[in-house]
Amino acid sequence: MALLSVKDLHVSYGAIKAVQGISFDINQGEIVTLIGANGAGKSTTLNTVAGIIKPDSGSIEFKGESLVGVKAHKIVEKGLALCPEGRRVFAQMTVAENLEMGGYTRTDAENAETLEIVYERFPRLKERMNQTAGTLSGGEQQMLAMGRALMSKPELLMLDEPSMGLAPILVEEIFDIIRALNDQGTTILLVEQNASMALSIADRGYVLEVGHISKTGTGSDLLHDDDVRKAYLGG
Ligand code: ATP
């Protein structure tokens, strides 16, 4: 059984049909990527799985249980966390307070333990635990957003454009962290515009085109696919 199974999902914003019948599966332990141009419906898909947007129709099952109609915080409790596009850190709060917010569904004792793990993974956050999040660099804010999502100890972590706006060296660092999290057992759903990086670390990928899935395959098949190369990898 797939860890996450999405079938025939339709999502709209008023008259705009952003997602028009997409289906995909993620198995335990995988890194799966959704790639596609601006406006293809990638963020809408993640936000719908996370319970932030309600779908028009379709099914979303996590560990065999339906997530449709389940409140966002309950979805976090079930083991599915979203690290949103644009990071959305709480700018006025410190690094430590931002991380605490990520663990709000868990007990203080659980959080104390997870916080140590997050600080070990992101030593830069530990050094800056009392700094206000708004003054962190872009890369540090991305680490904080990922650390905050990890505070709920997710089985499945959804990352929306983690490399956006980062210098190449930081992009490498973020991708190394994603790979390490996966090696330690976290299943990953990665949405990226940086298709070549995403496909190179993904077990499998899905190409989204204006609300539809146009192609699927292993990361390496898609990386070498002529159409994908032309459309998303600069030829
Ligand atoms: P990007 O990489 O640019 O974030 P995306 O693939 O994540 O793109 P979405 O953000 O999911 O795409 O957007 C899909 C479609 O839904 C687009 O046409 C977008 O304009 C529209 N859309 C997204 N959010 C809203 C909203 N809050 N209200 C109305 N339309 C929206």
TrEMBL record:
This is Amino acid/amide ABC transporter ATP-binding protein 2, HAAT family. Transmembrane segments: none annotated. GO terms for biological process: L-amino acid transport. Belongs to the ABC transporter superfamily. Keywords: Amino-acid transport, ATP-binding, Nucleotide-binding, Transport. Pfam families: ABC_tran. Residues 4-235 form the ABC transporter domain. The keyword Transport applies. CDD domains: ABC_TM1139_LivF_branched (cd03224). GO terms for molecular function: ATP binding; ATP hydrolysis activity; branched-chain amino acid transmembrane transporter activity.
